[in-house]
Structure formats: C-alpha cells, structure tokens
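Changelog-linked ticket: adenosine-5'-triphosphate example.
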Amino acid sequence: MHSPERQHSRGGVTMTETHSTGDTAVAARALRKTYGRGESAVAALADVSVDFPRGQFAAVMGPSGSGKSTLMHCLAGLDTVSSGTVWIDGTPITGLRDRGLTRLRREKIGFVFQAYNLVPTLTARQNIVLPLALARRRVDRAWFDEVVQTLGLTGRLKHRPHELSGGQQQRVAVARALLGRPAVIFADEPTGNLDSVAGAEVLALLRTSVAQWGQTVIMVTHDAVAAAYSDRVVLLGDGRLAGELHAPTVDSVLSALHGVALPGSVLPGSALPGSVLPGSTL
Ligand SMILES: Nc1ncnc2c1ncn2[C@@H]1O[C@H](COP(=O)(O)OP(=O)(O)OP(=O)(O)O)[C@@H](O)[C@H]1O
C-alpha cells in the first residue's frame, strides 16, 4: 500500500513519488478550495494537510462556514479541489477523471448521509447490497450476515424504508456502507435526523465497526456528544486546521470549539459564538 505520494513536475511531466505509509487510509496535502473569483472569491479551504490513519474513528468539527462539508467533499472525491492532493488508500484521487473517480468511490468509499439516502422502492436487503451490485462485486454471505446481525437488522431485511424507523433506516445505510469493506466511510451528520436514543445506537455501531472490524470512519458533525464517540476530533476554523483532540469528551470538545469560534463565525442555533453551552449541539 502506498500513501501518501508526492507529485511534482519535471520537464512538464508530472512525476509521482511513492513512499510506503500503509497505515494511512486518507491523506490530504496543501488542500485549497476557492469558490468564485476576484473580490467575491471565498477560500473555503486554505492549505489543509491532514492524515487519517486506518482503523480510526475521526470527527471533523468547527463553526458553521469553517469548511467541514467542503473538506469532506474534497476528501471523498465529490468535489474538485483548487490545488493540493488527496490520497485514498494510497491512490491520488485529485487527478482522476469522472469515470475513475466513480469507480474509486464504489470500491474504496462508503457513505452515510444525514438523510439516509435509501432507495424507497427497494427492501432493506436490496438497499444494503446495491453498491456491490452496481460495482458487479460478489456479496460475501458470511460478512453480510455478520454486519446485519451486529446492526440488529436481521428481522427487517424485507422491509422497505418507509416501513422502518429513522434509526433503522440509518442502520441500513451503515450496513450498506460497511458491506464493501471500504477503505473509509464518510459520515455526514449521521445522527442529524435522529432522536438521541437512535442517534446513540448509530454512533455506537460506527464505534463498533472501528473497534471490532478495523473500519476507518470520518464523520462531520456539529454535535459534541457525537464527536465524543470518536477517537480524534479534527478542528477547522476559517478553512484551516485549528487543532485536534485525542480521546475527546463532550466537555473537551465544547471548550475546544469555543477556542475556534473566530470573530465572524456563526454557530448554528445561536446568536453569538460561545453562547451554546446548554445542550451540546453546535
Ligand atoms: N458552492 C459554493 N459556492 C460558494 N461558496 C461556497 C460554496 N460552498 C461553500 N461555500 C462557502 O465556503 C465556506 C465553507 O463552507 P462549508 O459548507 O464547507 O462549511 P461548513 O463548516 O460545512 O458549514 P456548516 O456547518 O454550516 O455546514 C463558507 O464560507 C461557504 O459560504
């Protein structure tokens, strides 16, 4: 496994240097993403370099507008970067064209979105195997059974999404993400639509996938309680890395976030940065 690699230009030809750092699932170097041009240009990401080791549950946090979604979209190949390089499982993805990116996403990445994104006409079982079917990959029956059983979905496989609770639908989405044993699962506010009990179940299952199966998970969240399930919190402020926490607790996350709430940042649900301590959702 090779990651990260370094690209440089020699006589107009892009050379790719490879050195083995096989314990890194996702790496980014000097990432910049600018929206718009001239005076209206917004630097959503300004020189972000970060590594996500294999088998780690990482949370990405920061005030609204700090670049969390942009970072996730650039890391997952859902958006182009203005400059810089992203590697997934050793493959530099920032130079890939559409078809290569689609294939890489199918093979290497699992997604869990706030809105579940299940196909309403398909059963839970059909939804779970859909990405493998699209990639024409074989379903490992023993692994399917283990994932479905661990996620508590065994009795729900014939149900369609509207026959499932929100928590069950999100567990189907987690099973779908896990089934292909991806290099990384990107989770975008996975508990945003769930009550606290269902949310805690989903977070515990993401944790289990990391602890039990060595899955790598990168989760964007506003919720300090959700972030406290992770191994490491990467903090963004104004498009830059603003620090990180290891073995985070709700309190350590909240105080770190207060530190990055820069003038001009808007914390969702609160008029003033720093006025959000009751509850934990930033
Ligand atoms: N398509 C776009 N066009 C122009 N500006 C954009 C676009 N997408 C994001 N931005 C800007 O880039 C910056 C980072 O946005 P981003 O959505 O990544 O932040 P975020 O931390 O995910 O915010 P939130 O917590 O509110 O979801 C913001 O200033 C935002 O207005």
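Closing comment: Example verified and attached. The two ends are 37 Å apart (CA to CA). Helices lie at 68-75, 98-108, 124-134, 141-150, 166-179, 196-213, 224-227, 250-260.
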